[in-house]
DNA sequence: ACGGTATGTGTAATCTTTGT
DNA sequence: ACAAAGATTACACATACCGT
C-alpha cells in the first residue's frame, strides 16, 4: 500500500479511502490511485484488514458429516449468499463425532471467524451446549433444536409435515405394520419419528417398530437386515434420512425384495438415486439450498447491523411427500 | 478533498531484571 | 554465572481521526 501511495504520489490514507469507497475522494485521485494499483498489481491484504477492522470477513461452517449430499446442498446455498455479502466460508467436518464438533467450535473461534453456521452431530450433548454458551460470535443452527441458554438463530425444516403425509398415504394404501429406520438424538430424527408415531396413534390396528441408530448408510443396511429377519414382517418401511435410505435400498436389493409389491418404501430427500431407482422411490422432499440460504441470511442479520434488524429468530421451511411406485397397496 | 500520524492486532523474538 | 521470569519491541498492514 505504501508502494502504491508512492507510485501515485499520494498519501497512504488516500489509497485507503479510494480502495474502501470513502466518499471524500475526487475522480482525479481515484484515477491516480487505481492506475498505481493496476501497475503494481496490488491486492489488499485481508489478514491485515482483519487486524485493523476487527473482522475477518469469514464464516465458519461446522458440518456433522460432509459425505451427506444434503449437507453439500445446504453449504452451497449458504456459501452463495455469504459470498455475495463478501464473506468466505471455513468448513470443518465432524464425521458424525460430537467430540469433534466441540473441537471445531473452538477452532473456528480461534480463527476469529465473524460468525458460525452449525449442523451439529448432537445439539443435546452437554459439552457441545457448554461450548455454544461461551461462544461469543453470532450462531445459526441448521435443522437443530436451540438449546436452553444459548442465543442463536435457527434455520430448520418442518419434517413432520412431509412425514405425516407419507404415513397417511401408506395408511390409505392399507398398510398397518410399519418399520421406521431413524437417526440419533438430533432434531430431524426426533421430529420424523414423532410425526409417524402420532399419525399411527390415531389408527387402532396400526403398529410400528422404530430402529434408531444414526444417520449412516451402515445403519440403514443393518436395520433392513433386522427387519427382513422377522417372522411377521412389516409391509411398509420408512427410512428417515437419505443415507439411511441408501443403506436400506442396498440391503433390500441384496435380499431380492421388489419394492411396491410385498413391501412399500418411503425414503428421505429427492436425490437422483430415488428417482432413478427401479421402481422410483417415494420420498419426503425438501429444499436444502433454501435452508442454507436462509441460514446465511439469518447470520448476516447479526453480522451486518442495520441490514435486517428484524430478522426472525427462526426460519422453518416445509417438507413435502412425493408419492412414487415404491409405495403400493398393502398385500392382503 | 487531501496529507500526516497514531493506533490496533497477537505472537515471537529480543532485551532486561530477578533469583539462586 | 546462569536460569527463569518478566517486559518490551518487531512484525505487516490498513484505517480512523484530526488538521488544513
Automatic annotation (TrEMBL):
Q: Which UniProt keywords apply?
A: DNA-binding, Transcription, Transcription regulation
Mention one GO molecular function: DNA-binding transcription factor activity
Gene3D superfamilies, sorted: 3.40.50.2300, lambda repressor-like DNA-binding domains (1.10.260.40)
Q: Where is the signal peptide?
A: none
Record domain HTH lacI-type: where? 1-53
What PANTHER family has UniProt attached to this entry? HTH-TYPE TRANSCRIPTIONAL REGULATOR GALS, LACI-RELATED TRANSCRIPTIONAL REPRESSOR
Per its record, how is this protein called by name? Transcriptional regulator, LacI family
Q: Which organism is it from?
A: Conexibacter woesei (strain DSM 14684 / CCUG 47730 / CIP 108061 / JCM 11494 / NBRC 100937 / ID131577)
